Amino acid sequence: MGHSNHKDDFDEFLNEFKDVIPLKNTQVVQTTTNKNALAKQLKRQAIELEQQQTNNYLTTGDVKPIDPYDYLSFKQNGIQDGVFKNLRLGKYKIDTVLNLQQLKFEQARTTVFNQVQQAHAKGRRTLLIKHGLGLHSKPFPAMLKSYLNQWLIQMPEIIAFHTAQIKHGGNLAVYALLKKNQEQKLHNRETYGQK
């Protein structure tokens, strides 16, 4: 009689544990967690990239087409003529070269946006941006050059730009002058005793 009670107890015991997952599956659960962590990390990176692109205010809409052989030239108010002349003549040391040739439109837009901001943060002053002629670009010739002309005007970090000298690419490239960052302004004030 005690024997049948033992069986009932055992059945009851098994019944209590019917929802328990056998131990051998724990490895599977573990890897799923790792996959989830990786998925979350990738999603986070994608969101960060998307935010960078969302913060990218450079225009993708209407643009005034420029002839492939046109000179690009712009200076903000207050830029001294001598400074602009030196930029135009390629007399400043080139700190950074951006090559946009062979890049797709969105890649070029992101590169310009990110690289100009990084260069400014690092205190770089003169960029050489290679845009190419774009004789056969679609939907119109010099598409990238036309957009770059507009983008550089939109960026507060850029205080002047001009088509490069022949030795730096001529009509295929543009010099861009960046304004001083806060550290450089501070250094100048200390050096020259300005308040």
TrEMBL record:
<dbReference type="GO" id="GO:0004519">
    <property type="term" value="F:endonuclease activity"/>
</dbReference>
<dbReference type="Pfam" id="PF01713">
    <property type="entry name" value="Smr"/>
</dbReference>
<keyword id="KW-0378">Hydrolase</keyword>
<dbReference type="InterPro" id="IPR047688">
    <property type="entry name" value="Endonuc_SmrA"/>
</dbReference>
<protein>
    <submittedName>
        <fullName>DNA endonuclease SmrA</fullName>
    </submittedName>
</protein>
<keyword id="KW-0540">Nuclease</keyword>
<dbReference type="InterPro" id="IPR036063">
    <property type="entry name" value="Smr_dom_sf"/>
</dbReference>
<dbReference type="InterPro" id="IPR002625">
    <property type="entry name" value="Smr_dom"/>
</dbReference>
<feature type="domain" description="Smr">
    <location>
        <begin position="98"/>
        <end position="179"/>
    </location>
</feature>
<keyword id="KW-0255">Endonuclease</keyword>
